[in-house]
Structure to design on (232 residues):
């Protein structure tokens, strides 16, 4: 092969490699640029009933708030609805799912964390203890670490399956806090105690990298104060 032909072959190979590299870069950018939006919706008011943790629904006031949630979120491009199997979580997002004409998929692993038997202290004192040490649990209860791991595994599955889409997750105050804590450790006991029934947090992620958190639900006073720990 003479030099002229060899030069032509080299140029062709160089152009091919350059195009291939450009294609790989573009494809990588496309994958990384897909932003998945999660809406953590903590359930509406639900009166505690001993022995009915899974079956107790929302109150009359909670039903009114569920309708307000539907009105608040109806203009977002939400097409995926996930919920804890607990009745109060399902009932909270059901009106919005009905408006969007979408089914609700139940995921056992976004259920509320069971605190266990904590005799000798208040409910809030027990909660503070399991947030201060993620590997501590009460008898018959679940550690913060274990509850967080099961819930985050669901998030990873959802982001892989519905990357770039908008997803509502009907959930609970404790497990919502633990999911947020996975991305930002400032979400802990103080954040949990500040949350309301209902509450809504909008998360924007690229893969499992958190870009932004925004509180969407505000009390009837219409205060616009941001209560997320990272902004305090």
């Amino acid at each position: 092969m003479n030099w002229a032909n060899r030069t032509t072959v080299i140029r062709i190979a160089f152009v091919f490699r350059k195009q291939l590299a450009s294609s790989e870069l573009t494809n990588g950018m496309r994958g990384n640029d897909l932003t998945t939006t999660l809406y953590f919706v903590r359930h509406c008011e639900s009166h505690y009933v001993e022995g009915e943790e899974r079956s107790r629904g929302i109150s009359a006031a909670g039903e009114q708030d569920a309708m307000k949630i539907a009105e608040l979120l109806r203009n977002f491009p939400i097409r995926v609805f996930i919920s804890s199997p607990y009745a109060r979580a399902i009932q909270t997002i059901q009106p919005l799912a009905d408006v969007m004409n979408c089914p609700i998929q139940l995921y056992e692993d976004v259920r509320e964390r069971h605190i266990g038997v904590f005799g000798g202290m208040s409910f809030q004192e027990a909660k503070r203890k399991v947030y201060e040490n993620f590997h501590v649990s009460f008898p018959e209860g679940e550690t913060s670490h274990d509850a967080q791991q099961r819930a985050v595994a669901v998030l990873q599955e959802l982001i892989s399956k519905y990357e770039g889409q908008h997803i509502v997750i009907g959930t609970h105050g404790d497990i919502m806090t633990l999911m947020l804590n996975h991305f930002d450790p400032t979400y802990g006991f103080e954040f949990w105690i500040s949350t309301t029934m209902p509450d809504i947090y909008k998360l924007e992620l690229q893969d499992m990298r958190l870009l932004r958190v925004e509180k969407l639900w505000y009390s009837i006073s219409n205060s616009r104060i941001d209560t997320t720990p990272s902004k305090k």
